[in-house]
Amino acid sequence: MKVLVIYCHPVEDSFCAALRDVAVEAIEAKGCEARVIDLYAENFDPVMRAEERRRYNEQAPGDPALRPHIELVQWAEALVFIYPTWWYGLPAMLKGWLDRVWAKDVAFTFNGTRQSIEPLMGQVEKIAIVTTCGAPWWWSIIVGQPGRKTILRGIRALCGWRCKTLYLAHYMMDSATPESRAAFLKKVRRRLERF
Asked: Which fold does the domain 2-194 belong to in CATH?
């Protein structure tokens, strides 16, 4: 299976970086091919400019900087998103990547009517999220988990009909201990190897 890891964290030695490394190891241990997009390392521009927005419903993105990202998304059979949950949602960099890359004639077709959105990412059979959250699990649920819903409902709707999902979160990250982090790394490895 071809697995695309979308990694988004600005700090090179963050706990999310350790999660990324464990995820790639687990994917490769399973015999799958893993490729990584590191949005901060690439200095990805998440900002959709006025002209890009004006053409959004008419054609695929024309920015040549997006072409490698589009090719990787279209290559992938599984997606693993690794990011910190900030203010209950996706980091702006990751949200901007979704805005700019998961576009018309890439992830869906659209002919201008309400019922006309057709998914184009049918080859994607699995989506996993590995994240950290400062809040406790119960508060994240009360707030509504917008980041989780964006990917596991919105993005999943553009993927294969029977696309399986996995959500792994280390809650209370701001008060995490070495033991809680080590346990979560083991959990991520174990669950991704089975997923």
From this structure: Rossmann fold (3.40.50)
Which residue has 């959004």 as its token pair? 56
Q: Select from 88, 100, 87, 86 the least CA-distant residue to 37.
A: 100
In the chain, which ranges are continuous DSSP H helix? 15-29, 50-54, 67-75, 92-101, 137-143, 146-149, 178-194
Model pLDDT for residues 66-81, shown as the tens digit of each residue: 999 999 999 999 999 9
Per-residue model confidence (pLDDT) at position 112: 67
Query: What does the pLDDT average to over 35-64?
Result: 93
Cα radius of gyration rounded to whole Å, the chain: 17
Q: Angle 15-29/178-194 helices, nearest 10 degrees?
A: 30
CB 26 within 8 A of CB 189: yes
Contacts of 121 (CB under 8 A, 6+ apart): 73, 74, 107, 108, 158, 159, 160
Give domain limits for the chain: 2-194
* φ, ψ of residue 159 in degrees (nearest 5): -105, -170
Calculate the CA 125 to chain-centre distance.
14
Q: What is the pTM of this model?
A: 0.95
Given a contact cutoff of 8 angstroms between Cβ atoms, the answer to whether 99 and 46 are in contact is: yes
DSSP reduced 3-state for 4 = strand
